[in-house]
Amino acid sequence: MGRGTDQGARYGRRRTRAALAVLTAAVLGAAGCDAGGGGSPAPSGGASKRPRPAPAWDTSPESVAAVGDSITRGFDACAVLSDCPEVSWATGSSAKVDSLAVRLLGKADAAGHSWNYAVTGARMSDLTAQVTRAAKRRPQLVAVMAGANDACRSTTSAMTPVADFRAQFEEAMATLRKRLPKAQVYVSSIPDLKRLWSQGRTNPLGKQVWKLGLCPSMLGDADSMDAAATLRRNTVRDRVTDYNEVLREVCAKDRRCRTDDGAVHAFRFGTDQLSHWDWFHPSVDGQARLAEIAYRTVTAKSP
After folding, report:
1. Contact present, 191 and 264 (Cβ < 8 Å)
2. Burial status of residue 285 (CB atoms within 10 A of its CB: 0-12, 13-18, 19 or more)
């Protein structure tokens, strides 16, 4: 009796320990799956969840500054040989244009949070000074349209060399980055000046205004179709193409810069989109088309 009783007790204890081991393993296994999933170690609090970096491009900036030349000033859109900034594609208040600033901010906010530092006649060499003034406003977006006047010179030999144009644009971008490291930059391509000549030359009034010295390298001797005139116009056309490539290349090096990918240059301005004073600068309708292109580029989810 005694020996059998001892053996039975030992057997019972072994069964109890085995059952406890199985139960413990089951509990631990279940806890592991709930915490980590698939056998992965459980995260310790929320520390292992890394925040996603903010996107480099914000499609809804809250302030806009514009820099550039006569196009951004609305030159000749309202009256002959006069600026008309209220119809500017970038910052204008006109409902007929629905400018980039108005589209992004709304009319009320655009009135107090957009600024136009463009200057009629400005060239790329003037852009750094404009950017410096604009930076004092701390804009979240800087809109740039410059370069047409570098090609619109008295002669083709007076056009800004491509290397100088590049250095000047790089200087302006470096100045901007020094003062506004997080500002976004929209860069418009330069319009096809030869296209503007081909459309405007059909209007006698426009050609009279051209004789006042408007872009002589392209518009001089507007009706001449001889070899020299054709070569001159093609030289200007090719220089604008080179400038646009510089704008694209320099902008591509900055993660907070976007170009329109040549959309303004490719846009086929017709007589309705040209000033009815000089038949060369954009009309109110032309300014609206520029605003459409800019807004589409700025609000695109990816470049």
Report:
1. yes
2. middle
Transcribe 199-233 into DSSP letters: HHTT-HHHHHHHTTTSSHHHHTTTT--SHHHHHHH
| Chain-centroid distance, C-alpha 233 | 29
Q: Could you tell me the two tokens for 109?
A: 């906010």
On whether the CB atoms of residues 197 and 233 are closer than 8 A, the answer is: yes
Residues 6+ away with beta carbon under 8 Å from 211: none
3-state secondary structure of 40: coil
| Residue from 210, 224, 202, 192 nearest 277 by CA | 210
Residues 6 or more apart whose CB falls under 8 angstroms from that of 202 comprise: 271
Do residues 222 and 229 lie in contact, with contact meaning Cβ atoms separated by under 8 Å? no
For residue 48, what are the contacts with CB-CB under 8 A and spacing of at least 6? none
Give the strand pairing for 64-68 and 141-145.
parallel
Token code pair at residue 191: 């319009």
Query: Which residues sit opposite 259 in a β-bridge?
Result: 187
**Which CA distances in Å does 38 have to 30, 42, 49?**
11, 10, 18
Q: Are 273 and 243 in contact (CB under 8 A)?
A: no
- pTM for the structure as a whole: 0.82
Q: What is the pLDDT along the chain (303 residues), one digit of tens a residue?
A: 444 444 444 444 444 444 444 333 333 333 333 333 333 333 444 444 565 555 679 999 999 999 999 999 999 999 999 999 999 999 999 999 999 999 999 999 999 999 999 999 999 999 999 999 999 999 999 999 999 999 999 999 999 999 999 999 999 999 999 999 999 999 999 999 999 999 999 999 889 999 999 999 999 999 999 999 999 999 999 999 999 999 999 999 999 999 999 999 999 999 999 999 999 999 999 999 999 999 999 999 975
Question: What type of residue sits at position 75?
Answer: F
Tokens encoding 121: 């006649």
